[in-house]
Amino acid sequence: MTTTNTAEPILSPETAIAALSSDDNQIRYYAAWWLGKHQIQAGCMALCDALFDERYRIPGGGYPLRRQAARALGQLKNPQAVPALVTALECDEDLRFTEAAIAALAAIGDKKAINPLLNLLQSTQEQPYEALIEALATLQVWSAQPQIEAFLKHPSERVQCAAARYMYLLTQQPQYIERIVKNLYHDNMYLRWAAVFDLGAVGHQQAIQAILTAQVPNSLKLLNLKRILETLLESHNYEEKTALLIFQAIDDLLIQL
Amino acid sequence: MTDELIRAVAEAVTPAKMVTAVQNLAATKDIAAIPTLIAVFGYNNPVAAGVAATALTEMGEIAVPQLISQIDDYNYGARAYSIRTLAAIADPRALDLLISAAATDFAPSVRRAAAKGLGNLHWSMLDFTASHTAPKRALETLIFISQDSEWSIRYAAVVGLQALAKNSDLQQPIFARLNQMLTTDTEKAVRARVQLAYR
């Protein structure tokens, strides 16, 4: 071996945490991914520090390590990361980083994130609205309804869909599911995928049928039917009829490629 | 008649014409169409392959020997369609193929189809000795993959195990394993499917 690289390979939580402060930005990025993928709680504070990294920047001005650290913290779901993620929302130079921080706060589900997220919604600066609206829906912040209803007319169809999902979860009115289902038949594959994930958050028979007929890969159908099933199993008004419908749908999909 | 339809499949020049030609050939339900329908699995045309798979599944056990002998070891996509079709037909002659697909294939979708298929094979088609040993081999594989890290594989294993429990002499180990999953599985959706299997 003639390699001069003295860093240890990332095979354990200890090596991954150490690698976060490596000289090589690619290794640091991989370490952040690894800690999230394996949900290493011991890496939480080191990942929080990486949210404020200054060393790794790309020409467009983005912070790749910060973004990856935020995603990893979302996978850890550790409430101890909430203060750092909230502070990270103040970074207004990299919208994709803000987006990842918002999604992480939604995944953690701590109510302390609510006011900072509402502040972003009031901000006059451009925000990653799709993630923001999804987070407010996940955290069940229904006081934002007046502002979010306006996003149903936003130029971005993905933002419109996020608003429709929020409005459905709040009002249970099927017209909002129909707005999402419209995107299931969109020419743009990514909009179809986003729509399936929006429906995966909505436990309604209409959503189940729509997912089954969508032109999306089987794995995405399975994953989102499972999300609907989980929501149903956790809900107070568990409907056995709907659960049996989902079991049947998943059982049938197993034999498809 | 069938010869012409077979030639139309070979001569189809666009993906859309291929789908139409395969649909026409599939509609004949003619045994002579079987090799061509299997060959369609290798044409990298998912819609046509789906039509061919459905047609072969409907033809059932008559297509099984050729599905097994014509399996394409060099074309992964074609192989996946063959395994999925064999799983759907549920002829126990496919047992060995389904066991290796369920346990070792790299595509989760193929493993899920094989796992479900393993539970549903028509065991009574086998002779007396084999009809007792074969389900036990399916059981071993399903119990093995019920410990997979991927939730959808474990879910498929539960569906397979539930079907396999129709063999009364296998019920004891099957329900012991399901019971274990009820307390140890990390996914709520999988545990809920186990509970459904108990009814």
Explain what you see.
The complex is a heterodimer of chains A (257) and B (199). With 257 residues, chain A is an all-alpha fold. Helix content of chain A is 64%, strand content 0%. Chain A has 15 helices and no strands. In chain A, helix 1 (13-19) packs antiparallel against helix 2 (25-37), helix 2 (25-37) packs parallel to helix 4 (64-76) and helix 7 packs antiparallel against helix 8. With 199 residues, chain B is an all-alpha fold. Chain B has 12 helices and no strands. In chain B, helix 7 runs antiparallel to helix 8 (108-120), helix 7 (95-104) runs parallel beside helix 9 (130-145) and helix 8 runs parallel beside helix 10 (151-164). The model of chain B has no long low-confidence stretch (mean pLDDT 95). Classes of the chains: A mainly alpha (257), B mainly alpha (199). The interface between A and B is medium-sized, with 17 and 24 residues.
What's the short version?
With 257 residues, chain A is mainly α. Helices cover 64% and strands 0% of the residues of chain A. In chain A, helix 5 (82-88) runs antiparallel to helix 6 (95-108) and helix 11 packs antiparallel against helix 12.
Uncertain regions of chain B: pLDDT < 50 for 5+ in a row?
none
Shape of chain B: elongated
* Class by SSE composition of chain A: mainly alpha
Largest sheet of chain A: none
Number of strands of chain B: 0
Largest interface: chains, residues each: A-B, 17 and 24 residues
Helix tally of chain B equals 12
Instruction: Give the overall shape of chain A, derived from the CA principal axes.
Output: globular
> What is the count of DSSP helices of chain A, taking H or I runs of 4+ residues?
15
Query: Radius of gyration of chain A, Cα only, in angstroms?
Result: 20 Å
Average pLDDT taken over every residue of chain B? 95
What portion of the residues of chain B fall into strands of 2 or more residues? Answer: under 5%
Major sheet details of chain B: none
Order of helices and strands of chain B: HHHHHHHHHHHH
Amount of helix of chain A: 55-70%
Distance between the termini of chain A: 44 Å
Helicity range of the residues of chain B? over 70%
What is the C-alpha radius of gyration of chain B, as a whole number of Å? Answer: 18 Å
| Low-confidence segments of chain A | none
